[in-house]
Amino acid sequence: MWLAVLIVGFITGITVYLYHVLQATTYWKRRGIPSVPSSNIFTNQLDETTSYDHPICFQLHKWTKEFGPIYGIHSGMMPEIVISDPELVHELLTKKFEDFYGRRSSPLLKVIQNSKRAHLLNARGARWKRLRALTSPIFTMGNLKRLIPTVEKCSNYTMVFFDKAYETGKAFNIKPFFHEFTMDVMCHIALGHKETNQFNNPRTKLVDDVFKYLGGTPFEKSAFMAPALSFIFLPMFIIHSVLTSNAFSILIGQLRKAVAERIQERASGKTTTSDLPDFIDFFLDLLDDEVTDGAFTKTNAKVAKKVTEEEIVGQCFAFMLAGYDTTADTLTTSSWFLAKYPDFQDRLYEEIEEVCDTPEVTYEQLEQLKYVDVLMKEILRLHPIATSAIARECMESTTLGNIPIEKGTNVWIDFVTLNKNTEIWGDDASEFRPERFFDVTTEMQNAMVNFGAGPRICIGMKLAYIEEKIALGKILINPQY
Ligand code: HEM
Question: Which amino acids does the record list as binding heme (predicted)?
Fold first, then answer.
């Protein structure tokens, strides 16, 4: 009897699952929207959207060329739509923020983002609004000014390693140097490290490993393939994380320890007033045991200026991930372009020589470095990064242009197509010409979303510019090279 019930239950379960898989896979077809065909109805385009080795931005561009400016894909059973039209992008990120305020995430992490450890990258609604409101003051002009000597100190150390590599007379890969630099900066300003330990900083590899781990675990992939079963995959994911002591749980453990130690130090009065406050200090001033968020009210909602210990850990985690590889990557690509375009490099050099005429660089001087500014914009235009950070989830059924978008649908922006649109950027859209940013049209302004746009725009953008200007400035004015 029980065996019969089990068999019937099993067959029913499989039939229901297969029905849903077929429904999901034909989702776009049934809506008359072109979609990328798939050879596997269970995974569909999941391998492409979760690949660590092949950035999704190039794949989206390839698909756009084949399927047109608006098309659907399926990450497992999740329907996702891809857009590259500037008007739609503006609608998505800014005009209809209230319908698209959630960052796209795996069905598994969606469960975590409602947990105590939600952070700025994955939080949504009222919690995101509170965390954002608490974090924004860290990046005010006054605070950024205070960070400049630290960034300069870290970049001076990087120069020592550059010198050593240069003296060997052999070609070397510049990327690890920038990785060490940006990680050093984050460790100083977020976690309060006093000493620099570039090329001996275990966090650099650890955070790299977190990137490789997240998104690609079998549990996350399974959750994409059967979102309704995420509640089963989540405990498996957590147990696996703890048992295998992978990079993710190690990093969280380290950050938790750092925050707890700081709380103790403060309680015992060990911190001195001469210590430069870091991000942990900043959040600890707002520490509370419990914080309850109300509903996500749209505008003018007051937020509680409070944060829990676990949220501080989450915030540090978000900064480690978001503030490291992004800036290092941009610095690496900038260096490659400077080597390829010596005339532009000369202009940059002249500007730096003229403006930075004091032993220590100031915020005001950095503001005047317009050529580094346009260089960074052009690099991100030609080589966009953080494509998945900008993708959104539809939180309330709505439209984009005249296309109905149902609640739960993810929306990707195809950066490469948007950034090479000749109607916006001109006939030379595929060429390196940073000077185009000296004369920005409204269309260009609306299409420049490499740091995101609207209320969720990258919170570390100004810091990234500071790091880039200081690091490139140091390299260029070094008479050795
Ligand atoms: C070249 C460097 C960088 C690039 C290209 C970049 C790009 C981005 C993008 C595209 C987003 C998503 C924006 C959106 O959803 O509209 C984002 C968000 C974010 N970035 Fe950056 N980023 C960079 C550097 C940094 C740095 C240095 C930090 C930290 C110090 C940082 C912290 C964050 C955080 C916390 C978010 C989430 C903001 C939120 O959801 O409210 N980023 N970034």
Answer: 458
* Residues making up the binding site for heme: 458
- Supply the residue whose CA is at minimum distance from atom 10 of ligand 1: 451
pTM equals 0.93
Q: Which amino acid is at 273?
A: T
Q: Which residue's CA is the closest to the ligand 1 atom numbered 1?
A: 327
- 291 vs 305: CA distance, rounded Å: 9
In the block, tokens 């829990």 appear at: 308
CA atoms within 13 A on the CB side of 269: 0
327 lines ligand 1 (CB under 6 A): yes
Closest-lying ligand 1 atom to the alpha carbon of residue 449: 10
- Residue 38 backbone class (left: φ over 0; alpha: ψ -120 to 50; beta: rest): beta
Q: Which of 311, 375, 283 is nearest to 337 (CA)?
A: 375
Q: Over 70: is that where the pLDDT of 432 sits?
A: yes
CA of 272 to the centre of ligand 1 (A): 31
Q: What is the pLDDT of residues 459-478, one digit of tens each?
A: 999 999 999 999 999 998 87
* Tens-place pLDDT, residues 359-392: 889 999 999 999 999 999 999 999 999 999 999 9
Structural domains of the chain, with CATH: 1-103+110-477 (1.10.630.10)
Pairing of strands 78-83, 403-405: unpaired
CA distances from 139 to 126, 135, 178, 244 (A): 21, 8, 22, 36
Choose which residue among 90, 119, 458 to substitute to test ligand 1 binding: the one with the highest number of ligand atoms within 8 A of its C-beta. 458
- Each as own residue / partner, the long-range contacts of residues 453-456 (CB below 8 Å, 24 or more positions apart, any chain) are 453/89, 453/90, 453/93, 453/94, 454/93, 454/94, 454/97, 455/97, 455/101, 455/132, 456/93, 456/97, 456/101, 456/103, 456/128, 456/132
pLDDT tens for residues 209-245?
A: 998 888 778 888 999 999 988 889 888 888 888 888 7
Residue 464 has which token pair?
Answer: 């990234």
State in Å: Cα 106 to ligand 1 middle.
Answer: 19
Look at 263-277, 349-363, 378-392 and tell me which has the smallest mean pLDDT.
Answer: 263-277
DSSP three-state, residue 206: helix
Helical (H) or strand (E) element with 338:
helix 325-340
pLDDT of residue 300: 57
